[in-house]
Amino acid sequence: MQSLTNRKIDVNRSPMTFAEKIYIPEIARGMAITLKHFFKKKATYSFPEQKRPFSSVFRGLHVLNRDEQGRERCTACGLCAVACPAEAITMEAAERLPGEENLYREEKYAARYEINMLRCIFCGLCEEACPKDAIYLSETYTPADFARKKFVYGKPDLLIPNPVTEPEAYQKALGRNVETTAEAFEKLKK
Ligand code: SF4
Ligand code: SF4
């Protein structure tokens, strides 16, 4: 009967030849296939020592941005939280006090800003919604952890280092000296 896929193969039930009975040619054929793969380009990465290159459109860990004077850009308008389809962002706004102009660029700032990384789907809508260029998705990724509560990232985890007081850390956070996977693991061990 004709099969639907036309991929049916009839089993060969003819008696084995002498060469088939001694198996050696088949073993040699199998070894040749194995050997052929030794010289092929590896399709895998030796994780965690070797880091996989990111795609040009990779969206990683969120960063809360500062301006060139080191002031926080976020004005706690809440647009990122409204745009977030996963409802991963929460914040509390506060009024800037006299004398805090060097800390916060706008009159209102986020006293608390949290992203639940277990909810986040890294869609980037928060970045697109932000009118102050205050949040962006960097080229670093969220490191693994064992406790769920550690995936709720607060301001200390998200805020970019101050470009005036910590220029090196600032450049690294921009992805110009992206931390390797091995470094991320070292950090986790501490
Ligand atoms: S990347 Fe998408 S899911 Fe994640 S916090 Fe931003 S808007 Fe929400
Ligand atoms: S990150 Fe941008 S959109 Fe979100 S609250 Fe701050 S200023 Fe508004």
From TrEMBL:
It is a peripheral membrane protein. This is NADH-quinone oxidoreductase subunit I. NDH-1 shuttles electrons from NADH, via FMN and iron-sulfur (Fe-S) centers, to quinones in the respiratory chain. The immediate electron acceptor for the enzyme in this species is believed to be ubiquinone. Couples the redox reaction to proton translocation (for every two electrons transferred, four hydrogen ions are translocated across the cytoplasmic membrane), and thus conserves the redox energy in a proton gradient. The keyword Cell membrane applies. Keywords: 4Fe-4S, Cell membrane, Iron, Iron-sulfur, Membrane, Metal-binding, NAD, Quinone, Repeat, Translocase, Ubiquinone. Residues 65-94, 111-140 form the 4Fe-4S ferredoxin-type domain. NDH-1 is composed of 14 different subunits. Subunits NuoA, H, J, K, L, M, N constitute the membrane sector of the complex. The keyword Translocase applies. Belongs to the complex I 23 kDa subunit family. [4Fe-4S] cluster 1 binds at C74, C77, C80, C130. GO terms for biological process: aerobic respiration. Its main location: membrane. [4Fe-4S] cluster 2 binds at C84, C120, C123, C126. It is an enzyme of class 7 (translocase). HAMAP family: NDH1_NuoI. It is found in: Cell membrane. It catalyses: a quinone + NADH + 5 H(+)(in) = a quinol + NAD(+) + 4 H(+)(out). GO terms for molecular function: 4 iron, 4 sulfur cluster binding; iron ion binding; NADH dehydrogenase (quinone) (non-electrogenic) activity; quinone binding.
